[in-house]
Amino acid sequence: MFEKGEKPKSSILIVDDNPANIQFLAKLLTNEGYNVAACTHSESALPKILKILPNLILLDIMMPGISGIEICKAIKAKNSTKNIPVIFITAKSDSEDVVKGFKVGAVDYITKPYNAAELLVRVKTQMELQQSRKSILAMNKELQAQSNAKSDFLARMSHEIRTPLNAIIGMSTILSQQKLTTSQHKYMQVLNSSCDFLLYIVNDILDLSKIESGQYQLESNSFDLWDTIEKVCENTSFLAHKKQIELICNIDFNINQYVVGDSVRLQQVLFNLVSNAIKFTQKGEIEVKVICKDDHQPDKLSLHFSIRDTGLGIPKKQLQDIFEKYKQVKTEKTRAYGGTGLGLPICKTIIELMGGQISVQSQEKKGTVFSFFVLLSKSQQAEKTINKYFLKNKRILIIDNNET
Description:
The chain is α/β, with parallel strands linked by helices. It contains 9 helices and 12 strands. The chain folds into 3 domains: 11-114, Rossmann fold; 149-212, Helix Hairpins (Orthogonal Bundle); 221-378, Histidine kinase-like ATPase, C-terminal domain (Heat Shock Protein 90, 2-Layer Sandwich).
């Protein structure tokens, strides 16, 4: 079975109450270069397994006292032995017995009388699979260590970059308030916008490093939901108006005003999605809509958000990757907008941490709708009373240069 001179150091434990069987198997396996140990009593099987930790166990099902099935269960119940492959050896060949053996964790089933060549092939196969499994586990451990090191590096670099960046932003703000020439004022606008964009990138990298290292956690406080949503719309409205895009904030006033959750992270998600909508929309409108759906949970609110735009749209073949890290929609038009490709994956993580999900629907040149829901707890804080009928029977004049 092995090349001449090849001496595998793998060890095999044979558990069988029949000395003749043990003698036959031991000789067969020893000749192939395996280190073989044996146990004839079921009561001493588990202690011996724990002592020598073999690479493979050949276990007779019909053991007196404790059956092979029970021994296998005990092996799989312990962290130190659960990954040791067990091959059942028995004269029982009923399918019911075979299924029972696999259910308790056996990897193979060899019936008596033995075919020597077949048995050796099965043993070798399990040894190779175990070695492959060990290699994969070691590789995963190394990759995890590298990932942790990368996340730690990104976190430290993000903090290091923020320190001088805060000084630059502060000084540029002070300079902007001084008397400047037209050219100097233009230069300061470029500096300020570049600082804002760099800070946005640094924040994304810092968030991603926390997510990948498992340190990303949500706060839980009572907050004003209406105010949170309106702040996002207010903070992005100047960007929309600058492009002559209509920004509509549509909140169902039946929604509880006060909820319990992380207002900062919810605001981050909304700001990101609305900003993206504005970025990729050249004309038309953007609507932020919020409704509450009954999910039959007395202490929870299922809040459903949608951000609809009339922008460029996303190609169908790229929709499935839209929430993957470092991936962006790539077209001739979108390359000019820049970005890290981290915003949507971070939004997805935040939403899922809030017990929700996010999805997207889009049609090229007609626009995109990002929809998501989150589960927030109801707050005991007193709600404001809103008269939803204060405009009923009133005459209203609307003056706007946008027909929509």
